[in-house]
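Morning, I've got a small favour to ask if you have a moment. I owe you a coffee for this, so here goes:
>
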Amino acid sequence: MINLFKGMKKYKIQVFIIIVFTFLKVIAELLLPTMMASIVNIGIRNNDTGYILKLSMFMLGISFAGMGADMYKSYLASWTSMSFVRDLRKKLFTKVQSMSPGEFDTTGTSSLITRTTNDITQIQNLSIMGLRMMIRAPLMAIGGIIMAVSKNPGLSSLILTVVLILAILIGIIASISIPLFKKMQVKVDNLNRVLRERLTGIRVIRAFNRTEYERDRFTDANGDLTANALKVNRIMASMFPIILLLLNLTTVALVWKGAGGIDAGNLEIGDLMAFIQYAMMILFSLVMMTMIFSMIPRASASAIRINEILDMETHIKDPEIVQTPDEKKGILEFKNVCFKYEGAEENALENISFESKPGEVTGIIGSTGSGKSTLINMIPRFFDPCGGSILVDGVDIRNMTQKDLRSRIGLVPQKAVLFTGTVRNNIVFGDKSIEESRVETSASISQSSDFIEAMSDKYDSEISQGGTNLSGGQKQRLSIARALAGKREIYIFDDSFSALDFKTDSALRSALKKETGKATVIIVTQRVNTIMDADRIIVLENGKIAGMGSHRELMKNNLVYRDIVLSQMSEEESA
């Protein structure tokens, strides 16, 4: 957790000011009981009204000064804490954005969401309380002890005994609660995962009539978290009544013992009043520290989880020595490329070699699990090959910056992903250089214009989260429009026509041919008719190239491709 709070160094000036103002506030609080004792011992005893008024006004001034210092300190502490947490959240989000799909899947979406929200909140709560109380409590405790000992060393031994008891109590409670707080964050992850699965899979759940089953899953996860939280809160809740009991017993003991000192003439009434106030300051400072310590276990568990992400080594990195292609042509070349998923025994892809040039269409086809999408995902460097090299315009993509590489590629993923916002925002996708005319042209090429114009607000129509108010075909067409909006050298279509009817598919491919005539086009599909006219068709089987050539060549020479074709169309249609 200490490593996590190193980011607070950025706000060292603010922290220093907080310490100074806290120090001034504590001094004001420590002076007041002594002044009150002087009023009782001198002013009241001597019936000196002038002295009482003079000291009272001075006390009032100190009180206002202390209040002003406390208000400014609280404001600055809140601002510093929120700024620190803002930076931390941004740092964590940036780190997650830089993770490769493999690293992303290892941690899990639900866990990443919990760490970015719930875990960050725990750090936020601790930082606010820490800046407000963690500085004040030790200063008040030390100052109170000094002032109390100066008033009466004999009574101070009683306070030290209570402090020792409190320290033992806090240690016992902390040793029990820390493991439970660590478990709680894991259980929050589990609850988020179950809830997320239920919400995203609601149609499947209802279709299979598994509503009760999913409700039971949620109830179990929710009950597990609740039971753990109740156990922790019972422990923490029992601590404060015990502390209050100790405070009250301490007050009674001080009055009882102090009364004997007053009766013997060794102690004045004002000094006893001041001593009791100092004792309360010491014990309340311990209560404040206890409150903070009660937050530390959960914040510590959250800090560990956040550091796990921040310290995670990202395998996909920009090179130290960057190479940039001389020209933007779009020549794509695979040289003996292989790929292996982490933990897998065998390569998912092996000995992949081909070259695709501008103006050419390369089709990739194969059975499910043959490695089509894996091959495609290596081009924008979502994964790195375990051997061989992938070149764009003669430069190994590992020697290019990710930004430069991806600025050359227009990718339409297998799963059409849309974001909350308007149709226009989804097509432009944050690229301010794309003009309105280009947005409409991209929509027209992707065969999206008809359904967009039919919407109430046309290009300003709102798209719900995940595009749930659109059909599968409409989502695919908007995804294609998004890729076409920014003119690229390489276009990759990963099974992007599967939800289209044959008429729309044909019209779209015809329009694409004109638009991407000077670009390198890679089409992954399971539909033969989508790539029949491709310049080159690559047939994948079990992660290897089983054949490569035109449609006619493969029909004559490749049994795997022929079987795929004849499973979808007749001999006459395939000819």
Notes: The two ends are 68 Å apart (CA to CA). The chain has three domains: 4-310, 351-408+489-501+517-569, 415-487.
